[in-house]
# Entry
Amino acid sequence: MEFIGRSIKKGEGHEGIGEAMVGEERISMIPTAPEVYWSALVNGQNIECHIESNAILLDVIRDEVGALGVKRGCDMGTCGCCTVLIDGEPKLSCLTLAGEVRAKEITTVEGLADGHHLHPIQDMFAKHGGSQCGFCTPGFLLVSSALLEKNNSPTDAEIKGAIEGNLCRCTGYQPIVDSIQAAAELMRTDAESVDSTTAKADPHPGFSGENEGGHTA
Ligand code: FES
Ligand code: FES
# Structure
């Protein structure tokens, strides 16, 4: 048997790393991982498939789920393009084993809009020039939507802290910060209008009955 891996011995023809010739047959010397069952709730849809036990989430989301909004940038955890939300928290899918997030809720940029209604962060990125070539945009949208979910009045410093792991080579970043601030303002306005609608609909806001000595049934 002749080992023809490039780093050990360079053979002739179309040799590959970790391959060997057994007679006339070319075989791989690299063991393949066993296939395992995998499922998760991706953008509200239950996904079930079989994956290699060491599959990377980025590959599963793109190749099995077909959510191509998850971008492969650096593939080593430095650009943020591959960000997804796992149970609402941003995570780099290029550094995550799919098996780690089995049965979790995963959101990609495809799951941000509510039907035909864009998420405020998508709307404001479009209006304030937060996106140019768009390659980095899904990562920024997901990171900032997670921030605004917890804090709809962030300071510029808090925004910069939230997006510090995401790289953009087009916008110069200030339009991104402006877009996130505009989305925060829109979300505050929406929250206030929901609050005032609820208050109008309830003629006795704050009345629980429990402290009033009756009507608790
Ligand atoms: S592709 Fe994951 S951080 Fe760059
Ligand atoms: S918009 Fe092009 S890399 Fe960010």
Q: What stands out?
A: Residues 174-201 form the longest helix (28 residues). The chain has five helices and eight strands.
